[in-house]
Design brief:
Number of strands of chain A: 22
Strand order of the largest sheet of chain A: 7-6-15-10-11
Mean pLDDT of chain A: 94
Strand content of chain A: 25-35%
Number of helices of chain A: 6
Distance between the termini of chain A: 50 Å
Order of helices and strands of chain A: EEEHEEEEHEHEHEEHEEEEHEEEEEEE
Helix content of chain A: under 10%
Oligomer: homodimer
Structural class of chain A: mainly beta
Largest sheet of chain A: 5 strands, mixed
Bound molecules: molybdenum atom
Chain lengths: ~375, ~375
Amino acid sequence: MEVFHGPSTYEREPSRHPALKINSKEPFNAEPPVDELVRSYVTSVDMFYKRNHGPVPVLEDISLYRLEVGGLASNRCSLSMDAIKQLPKHTVVATIQCAGNRRTAMSMTRKVKGVGWGLAALGNGIWSGARLSDVLEIVGIPKYSRVSAYGGKHVEFVSVDKCKEENGGPYKGSIPLFQATNPEADVILAYEMNGEELSRDHGFPLRVVVPGVLGARSVKWLRNINIIAEECQGFFMQKDYKMFPPSVDWDNVNWGSRRPLMDFPVQCAICSPEDGSYLDGKGKVTVKGYALSGGGRGIERVDVSADGGKTWTEAKLAQGPKSGLGYIPDDDDHRDKWAWVLWEASIEVHLPADIVAKAVDTSANVQAEHVETIWNLRGVLNNSWHR
Amino acid sequence: MEVFHGPSTYEREPSRHPALKINSKEPFNAEPPVDELVRSYVTSVDMFYKRNHGPVPVLEDISLYRLEVGGLASNRCSLSMDAIKQLPKHTVVATIQCAGNRRTAMSMTRKVKGVGWGLAALGNGIWSGARLSDVLEIVGIPKYSRVSAYGGKHVEFVSVDKCKEENGGPYKGSIPLFQATNPEADVILAYEMNGEELSRDHGFPLRVVVPGVLGARSVKWLRNINIIAEECQGFFMQKDYKMFPPSVDWDNVNWGSRRPLMDFPVQCAICSPEDGSYLDGKGKVTVKGYALSGGGRGIERVDVSADGGKTWTEAKLAQGPKSGLGYIPDDDDHRDKWAWVLWEASIEVHLPADIVAKAVDTSANVQAEHVETIWNLRGVLNNSWHR
Ligand SMILES: [Mo]
Ligand SMILES: [Mo]
């Protein structure tokens, strides 16, 4: 047996926090209670959603771990954890969101296939590790490369888990070479989360973090990096995580007609008061939630309504330690480019309250007013107004 | 009088194509008939919308023209047109869209302030000139700089026209230094449009083209480039082109509470059949239009409906010479990153026809279903579903 491997059974799963809401037990898929999300800007390791496709891999001896990097590059290399830790350590505050976040709500209007998720399939972490662009230099690919000398245009990440969707093969995905070699894109190979060694559920000993992109490309339990000519042909790139219109269903889907999703749209959700919670209808209520957008775009504004969208109040936005201005300027001194914004609004509620929230990003993109207009067979990227 | 200057009167305006629809005569603001837009992937110079804030500047002698570059940089320089043409010539296909495009439609739901525009305040051009990043190297600022050695963080472009909004001063605007020095952002100082010398209405002898950003930052009749510490304090950065919610009107607007708009959201419009044109209700109708998104994001899909949004047909997308696939992949070989997509759909129409179009960009952002939800006092960035 290899020193680093994906088991076939669930006998060696890590322990998890009992407050997590389990959407699927095997493989383990769980999200925290929604009010946990707005408790702190950085989501704790315990409360960070877990999204697995098979049993959690096991590393028998970290001193024997090797990351294999090769493919259409001048060199190949095999890096121990010590070698990876010798590279400059880079830290990124980044929110990772599952493309299926808020799927259950989309499913209610018309059935979709996929693990059900409430609105907590995301979390904001502090990720530290080596820059992917530094690792690619070791195999002879310079920064800001669009094509390698050997014709490579994509960088593939391969895990060691055993996924049903891959017929027992490992989870994999790829990103364009230009994003991988662009230090500004902040793609890292993380061995720490929130200042601690990465936990097993989050990809121990090493995972990719691709900021501003669907969680699906931030491959956990990383073993291989391959420089390849075309985008990765794995299931999660070719038969999943693509965007179809409401008119396409399982009887007429043509997966080859679409590109793999990367970047995600503007999103927000109300975390407190929780849906269905008791409101006594007297005076002001404080409403709290999160908002984020893909591709490094910021949040311009969050609007909150207590009357189903007839009148709106603007929320106050905050990004943890970088907060304090009336708005969040577009520069690194004032904003965590890849992270969510937590927001809060005090609104007058009359019963029956009908609380709605929607965000606008810095590109002036808006959320979909009705979920029906963005319904898609896989139930991905539900960014409709949160009601 | 300076050799390059903005007149105070409208006696030396260039001639214009008689088919243009004039929204304001002095200053001249005009757009083409909408069916012109979908006639060709590249918009002709004549039919490209004109958006001026004062009389068109006059250059008495091109041999005496100088671009002055200075501010928080190691050097300053004064470049003749010959010197600018000695730099590597770079060509970018880019759509420039006025932030006020489709303002008239927004104004119909509630009055806004600003020049009225139909849906043709945009055009797709082939722009050639020097890379801004190459010019900035001449004054000692390297590629990929966030801050210059002297504390510069923004690059200001100053014209020579006389704008009422600037109390007779010149039009100006700025972009972040990082965008200006990033060759991938494709910001150019253009002296050619569609292979011809730039015309007076479009900024002769030199203009900025900032791809993926509101037209307002692509300053025409460029005379000065200043490296500055904070974003430009001109009218068009501070008192215009900002995004406010529908609840903010002229009696409660606080301009300081918002950032200047740069990137723009996903957009599309129907150009043929034209609004109000005669449909006989028998069989299929071919519907044509344009779609684009900001920040280099592509178009994933355009949906067209003949029944007011009950049922939808997916349009065929094309980007001129780069067309031919079922979808437009995300790489430079297959896509003009900064350009619009022209689309076409054949749909069955029953009278009364209620044709609607909406686009989805490659980040899965969608257009606003109703214009009322994105109304803003300046009437900018109307990207509601086109009905
Ligand atoms: Mo996911
Ligand atoms: Mo504009």
